[in-house]
Recover the amino acids of this structure.
């Protein structure tokens, strides 16, 4: 079976499959006991990301257990600022932290050695493509410039990313430069992942939902459009999924402006609106992760609603955000079985 027959690649090219292919954001994660065991052996979280042996293992774990149609590289969106020497660290109970950047720091950013620094991640991609079942799509990924910038400005995550929004208003030229640098480096990184063996890539704009209309255009749409144009200029056959979480109605022309092949939808996107978005190409999503935690009727109802509305068009079944640590692995199996038993 060649690359063109991998189910997710077929959907990214606009095909409708019944049942639709399925994978889950954060499918390699703390809800799986085997992940927790590997994480304990690896040491720090970044050691887990940068050690190909461990990163390959945790990427493969949900494929072995559930047979998902895609494996997504195990890494983190903050490896880019880490490669920019921002002193990224992960501490239990506090989330990611790094040295915050200011105008002067933005002016001094060096990007020459970023891809070289990330060679262990690219090695992981290559190993995965050789070890995955031939029918399984391998997804690479990175964070969108806006979302990565929010952590770089604040030095940590915040509830509404007010520090980055304020910085963008007060220092528009510096912020524009930061987004442009991140777009360029991130596009290079995704091209390198594709060259290493990734079939397609996803751009995570996890904080797109905190932006107003004008800022969404400037901070979310334009940098992602710049990335995708750069990727496709070099790798015309590349397929890109872009996930702008929380963007709501602003997704109306997001595909057209960014040229993404598929758009990810969070669980707040109304399914009738999703049907309209699907008329222009593949959509991915959008089950509430809490339904996987709840199980039972809540899980079945949510799955059926999505399949009934979106199953007649190009759909990649997924969650509306990452699976949570408290999810029961048995409910994930029920989810996979339910989706795979569905027919139009």
């Amino acid at each position: 079976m060649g690359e063109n027959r991998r189910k997710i690649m077929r959907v990214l090219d606009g095909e409708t499959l019944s049942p639709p292919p399925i994978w889950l954001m954060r499918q390699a994660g703390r809800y799986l006991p085997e992940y927790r065991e590997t994480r304990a052996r690896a040491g720090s979280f970044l050691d887990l990301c940068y050690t190909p042996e461990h990163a390959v293992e945790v990427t493969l774990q949900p494929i072995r257990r559930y047979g998902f149609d895609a494996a997504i590289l195990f890494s983190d969106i903050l490896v880019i600022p880490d490669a920019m020497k921002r002193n990224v660290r992960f501490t239990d109970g506090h989330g990611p932290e790094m040295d915050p950047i200011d105008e002067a720091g933005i002016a001094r950013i060096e990007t020459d050695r970023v891809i070289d620094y990330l060679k262990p991640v690219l090695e992981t991609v290559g190993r995965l493509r050789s070890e995955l079942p031939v029918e399984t799509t391998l997804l690479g990924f990175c964070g969108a410039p806006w979302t990565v910038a929010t952590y770089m400005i604040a030095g940590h995550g915040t509830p509404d990313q007010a520090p980055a929004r304020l910085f963008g208003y007060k220092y528009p030229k510096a912020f524009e430069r930061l987004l442009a640098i991140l777009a360029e480096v991130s596009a290079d990184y995704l091209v390198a992942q594709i060259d290493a063996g990734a079939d397609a890539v996803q751009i995570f704009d996890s904080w797109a939902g905190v932006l107003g209309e004008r800022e969404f255009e400037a901070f979310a749409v334009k940098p992602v459009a710049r990335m995708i144009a750069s990727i496709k200029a070099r790798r015309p056959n590349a397929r890109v999924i872009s996930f702008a979480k929380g963007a709501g109605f602003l997704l109306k022309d997001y595909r057209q402006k960014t040229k993404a092949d598929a758009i990810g939808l969070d669980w707040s996107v109304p399914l009738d609106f999703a049907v309209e978005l699907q008329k222009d190409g593949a959509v991915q999503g959008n089950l509430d992760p809490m339904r996987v935690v709840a199980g039972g009727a809540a899980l079945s109802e949510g799955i059926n609603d999505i399949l009934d509305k979106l199953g007649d068009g190009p759909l990649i079944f997924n969650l509306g955000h990452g699976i949570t640590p408290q999810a029961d692995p048995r409910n994930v199996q029920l989810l996979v079985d339910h989706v795979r038993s569905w027919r139009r």
Remarks:
- Strands lie at 70-72, 89-91, 95-97, 137-143, 200-205, 240-244, 262-264, 282-287, 315-319.
- The mean pLDDT is 97.
- The first strand starts at residue 70 and ends at 72.
